[in-house]
Amino acid sequence: MEFMKSFRQKGGAQLIVPKGRWLTGSFNLTSNFTLFLEDGAVILGSQDPEEWPIIQPLPSYGRGRERLGGRHISLIHGDSLTNVVITGNNGTIDGQGKMWWDLWWNRSLKHTRGHLVELINSNNILISNLTFLNSPFWTVHPVYCSNVVIKDMTILAPLNAPNTDGIDPDSSTNVCIEDCYIESGDDLVAVKSGWDQYGIATSRPSVNITIRRVSGTTPTCSGVGIGSEMSGGIRNVVIEDLYVRDSAAGVRIKTDKGRGGYIRNIIMRNMTMERVKVPIRFSRGANDHPDEKFDPKALPKVKGISIIDVVSWDSRKAPLLQGIEGAPFEDICMKNVRIQGLSPVYKLEL
């Protein structure tokens, strides 16, 4: 990779984490830096909420995604960085998220939970060859970033852990996600670009996103989701060689009134699904908004979606393509899509 050559030429620091279990609170990365976990190395997120300090909300969200005001910082954090590598010989970073999930389930969460890894306003990022476990919230969140590669990753959370998305590129450009296995309580991969009027005002789209050879399961959400926070716009996304099993949806486009923005030029091809409830779903999201100031007349524009070479076995429902009143989806092409439903015998056993 070209930026890795630049990294070597400029010099930089490397932190090698040896075999063992290492407990830590949130920490910041720096530019021209490699975090390397050796085989058997485990970084554990602290169970003390005070070691996950509160930071300002993202401009494109206007508030914490779950609660008003600020949000907890991620376990591994970086802002305005260049040339950063997070890698290793299959080491592990474990967010120990159960404490945070319990706060969410008990409705006693005061601030939005932190991510496992969040990089902001950064470029030339590589995340590879590691296992990420039990993130409190979305696992990997590059936001306002460019030139990001996430590859050869295993990302796991209990299937009932709330909102534990695997990888969420957000208002970012030139992102490649490949050869990853993900199990989570939410979308395996979700492409985002801001929330309602804050995302519209920030106007930072997600552009040139490639997602390939990703596999996994999520019982409540989708293999790849686009939105629902997409108010800054999303375009030029390629999803290919996707394998999803035992999930609520295979691929989903989620929008809503008040979102504004656009989703266009999306290619989905060569996807295999097994026991997925709705293999292809385009519909409204959860009708959630940051505050009462959103404009219900700000309607998203969805145009130019190609879905090619799809096989879905033991599907429970047909694909759902449902636009928004006043904002119909346009130019949707489906080619060589095969959907096989459950057998009558199996239906009788339910």
Automatic annotation (TrEMBL):
Keywords: Glycosidase, Hydrolase
Lineage: superkingdom: Eukaryota
InterPro entries linked to this entry: GH28_Enzymes (IPR051801), Glyco_hydro_28 (IPR000743), PbH1 (IPR006626), Pectin_lyas_fold (IPR012334), Pectin_lyase_fold/virulence (IPR011050)
KW Ligase (keyword) present: no
GO molecular function annotation: hydrolase activity, hydrolyzing O-glycosyl compounds
Residue stretches spanning the membrane: none
Family label: Belongs to the glycosyl hydrolase 28 family.
Protein name: Pectin lyase-like superfamily protein
Organism: Forsythia ovata
